[in-house]
Amino acid sequence: MKDHLVIFDTTLRDGEQSPGASMTKEEKIRIAKQLEKLRVDVIEAGFPAASIGDFESVQAVATTVKDSTICGLARAVENDIRRAGEAIKPANSGRIHTFIATSPIHMEKKLRMSPDEVVERAVWAVKLARQFTDNVEFSPEDAGRSDPDFLCRVIEAVIDAGAGTINIPDTVGYNVPEQFGALFNDLLTRIPNSDKAIFSAHCHNDLGLAVANSLAAVQNGARQVECTINGLGERAGNTALEEVVMAIKTRQDVFDVDTRINTQEIVPASRLVANITGFAVQPNKAIVGANAFAHESGIHQDGVLKHRETYEIMRAQDVGWSDNKMVLGKHSGRNAFKTRLQELGIEFETEQELNDAFVRFKELADRKHEIYDEDLQSLVTDNNIMRVENETYRLVSLKVSTETGESPEAEVTLWIEGQEQTAKAQGGGVVDATFKAIESMVHSGASLLLYSVSNVTNGTDALGETAVRMEKAGRIVNGQGADTDIVTASAKAYINALNKLKDAPVKAHPQADV
Ligand code: KIV
Ligand code: ZN
């Protein structure tokens, strides 16, 4: 029997800390449900003390998800721990993850605390967290640059205080695999009560080594890996869940551990996170990139056709790539539509939502003959169905004109809190003109940080998915839209972002000063 490797997903917490990746409560619930289907062991659902919205999101995830442990992050301060304890209360299984920095530079410059004070605070925090749950995780932040002797001291003390998981973060992505693996070996050997806790790796990807460092930790005794879908996270991101999981699964000859992940849910999870955050996946990204299983060169294709294993070490279907077959068309009925959505694990809370989605499906089928699974997934993600609560703006109609040598023009009609308004504008292109027309009605004053378009399937009739990132007074939001017409998709994404902007909270960053 192999040891179980706990997969701790922090897409909703560390992933969300990435500037611009902030998600609404509804979006977090959707991702959490997908993570549950993926069978991750632990979902770090957020930092409840950051804002009321973050608290409510963690609470909502704890209420909704049944099969994964729900974790809330807390600095080693009373309010954070109490808020985390409250937020995870509805969970079948809840965890508090508390942390304090242990590296000389963090203790001296950020915390302004002596090493003795840090040990005392860490022990106090773990004991307080234990009053809310038996499942407490402790992280010595910036462990990768901490003195190993001091780490041994803190960790021994927090295990005695009741921490069941010890997470070792390489907070700034400074470590290299041999060194990080050796650190685990050292800690597990030297700390007398190390057998009373599960040791965990939490790596950042600043040197592109997060996955390699996490795997080195596993080879040296780590039995939990903290990771995010698509490697989402601040700066260069966190350890990519899909890469760690598939490395373990594919190289069972090398690793003494196994996971319980349902790998066929990896690609749907990747698409959902990319779609919601607007952080597109690069085509050559391992496992979930569009080219990850594409065999372009003639030699490779020939080899794969003769014998798959000549050039393939994993099967695309095993990570959830569909074989791109047409699933529905213009004449498919409501029942076929509902059944295929159910097979894809997409459920609606009300009949009305299903009906709305079916209307959208019919509209799409009129414009696009062959409907693929990816189209259906995009269709239900589209903000026309998954609406922002209490939306202020809605797209009523859009007319654009463009001609060689002339300025492109757009005429947009918006529903603005019950009233229709129309405006025209010219721009560098039709998308620019459309955004200018919208802006002339809403006067958001926000700046556009990102605009991107990607195609859901191949072909010029494919659905285009657009992402728009906007910023105003420190609040950053992402809007998404999908349509076979990319200008309409762009307008939808812009309006979706505007609807989110008005309610976006200003949040505290967990790794800022206490
Ligand atoms: O990278 C880090 O140190 C963290 C901690 C909060 C665990 O994310
Ligand atoms: Zn981190």
UniProtKB/TrEMBL annotation:
Protein name (record): 2-isopropylmalate synthase
Sites where the protein binds Mn(2+): D14, H202, H204, N238
Function: Catalyzes the condensation of the acetyl group of acetyl-CoA with 3-methyl-2-oxobutanoate (2-ketoisovalerate) to form 3-carboxy-3-hydroxy-4-methylpentanoate (2-isopropylmalate).
Residues in the signal sequence: none
GO cellular component, one term: cytoplasm
Region of interest called Regulatory domain, as start-end residue ranges on this chain: 394-514
Molecular functions per Gene Ontology: 2-isopropylmalate synthase activity; acetyl-CoA C-acetyltransferase activity; manganese ion binding
Subunit structure: Homodimer.
Species, as recorded: Thiomicrorhabdus xiamenensis
Keyword tags: Acyltransferase, Amino-acid biosynthesis, Branched-chain amino acid biosynthesis, Cytoplasm, Leucine biosynthesis, Manganese, Metal-binding, Transferase
UniProt record similarity statement: Belongs to the alpha-IPM synthase/homocitrate synthase family. LeuA type 1 subfamily.
Superkingdom as given in the UniProt entry: Bacteria
Cofactors demanded by this protein: Mn(2+)
Catalytic activity from the UniProt record: 3-methyl-2-oxobutanoate + acetyl-CoA + H2O = (2S)-2-isopropylmalate + CoA + H(+)
Gene name, Swiss-Prot/TrEMBL: leuA
Keyword Metal-binding carried by entry: yes
Positions of the Pyruvate carboxyltransferase domain: 5-267
